[in-house]
Amino acid sequence: MLLSVERLSVSIGPARPLDDVGFALAPGEILGIVGESGAGKSLTAMAVMGLLPLIGGRIDGGAVWFDGVDLARLPEEDYRRLRGRRMALIMQNPMTSLDPITRVGEQIDQVSRLHMGLDRIAARARSIELMGQLKIPEPAAVHDLYPHQLSGGMKQRAVIAMALAADPELIVADEPTTALDVTVQAQIIQLLVELVRDRGLSLMLITHDMGVVAQACDRVAVMYGGRVVERGPVQAIFAQPRHPYTKALIGCIPRAGMAPGALKGIPGTVPSVSRYPSGCRFHPRCPQAQPLCQETVPVLDGGPTGDGVACHFPNGPRP
Ligand code: SF4
Ligand code: MG
């Protein structure tokens, strides 16, 4: 495994937003992390990237194995060498990653200059090639533009080029297309998947959309209330979802021919971090909850990183 997150707990002050989170990512694999906002997906990304201190968070249990090294215990200095070079983060809003007063291409150049030691000319050539692979038209001209001169979709392509510039082994993409138009979203996911597959990279793709998981991912970890509730290969999970929350997420995918407005959300609200429900955190919204569900936390039956489900009644309500 390239990345193996095991029994990860994260706290921010007195709150424990992530609890016993686990999954594994093999080289060349695309893993979806899916759930509604507030499930802990972005925090999981930040924990992997070593960015929790920026928001006052810390890892207080578990491990984040990356190529045999436990990142949960890695000094910041070593982390800095890893970020950008061996692992890169793509965030939802391209403007959080782009400096508004530096030319777009120069920002991509800087990554390969810093992490690969390329000179100015080689870095520029590499950036233009990458921009071309990201289907940015006239990449040599766009190289010299400022971020505000690009559309949202083009800016996000530039951010993806930046993430790829140092040839990292792992890309973490946190809702990389959520801020964009629906038509642009699908194109960019498609491009990202092609580039990742061509290079044999591993991708952790965070999304709230099961449709994106179906389009792009090999495996999926479904998160709810700061925990992983179901994990497995995408095909198997779509063929036979076992957790009621996974079933509900699949039911939210818009289908062709659906009347506009027919899109159904999941009834009820996502629990807040400071007041997670007792027992199974999904019980207030679960259509098949039983008294046991309020009392006892269901543990994922596949172990810390294996396939499985965390539900007392994965085969449906008791007769
Ligand atoms: Fe529903 Fe109970 Fe399963 Fe939780 S453990 S998802 S409440 S059936
Ligand atoms: Mg998020």
What is the secondary structure topology, with strand pairs?
Blueprint: E1 3-12, E2 15-25, E3 30-34, H1 41-49, E4 57-66, E5 69-70, H2 76-82, E6 87-90, H3 94-97, H4 104-116, H5 120-133, H6 139-142, H7 152-164, E7 170-174, H8 182-199, E8 202-207, H9 210-216, E9 219-224, E10 227-233, H10 234-239, H11 244-251, H12 291-295, E11 308-309
Parallel strand pairs: 3-8, 3-9, 6-7, 7-8
Antiparallel strand pairs: 1-2, 1-4, 4-5, 9-10, 10-11
Helix pairs in contact: 4-5, 4-7, 7-8
Iron/sulfur cluster binds next to loops.
Main location: membrane
Subcellular location: Cell inner membrane
GO molecular function: ATP binding; ATP hydrolysis activity
Describe this entry's structure for a reader.
InterPro entries: AAA+_ATPase (IPR003593), ABC_Ni/Peptide_Import (IPR050388), ABC_transporter-like_ATP-bd (IPR003439), ABC_transporter-like_CS (IPR017871), Oligopep_ABC_C (IPR013563), P-loop_NTPase (IPR027417). Belongs to the ABC transporter superfamily. It is a peripheral membrane protein. GO terms for molecular function: ATP binding; ATP hydrolysis activity. It comes from Hypericibacter terrae. The chain has a domain at 95-167. By secondary structure, it is α/β, with parallel strands linked by helices. It has twelve helices and eleven strands. The chain has helices at 41-49, 76-82, 94-97, 104-116, 120-133, 139-142, 152-164, 182-199, 210-216, 234-239, 244-251, 291-295; strands at residues 3-12, 15-25, 30-34, 57-66, 69-70, 87-90, 170-174, 202-207, 219-224, 227-233, 308-309. Strand 7, helix 8 (182-199) and strand 8 (202-207) form a beta-alpha-beta unit. The strands form two sheets. It has a seven-stranded mixed β-sheet, sandwiched between helices. A four-stranded antiparallel β-sheet has the order 2-1-4-5, covered by helices on one side. It is globular and about 65 Å long. The structure holds iron/sulfur cluster and magnesium ion (MG).
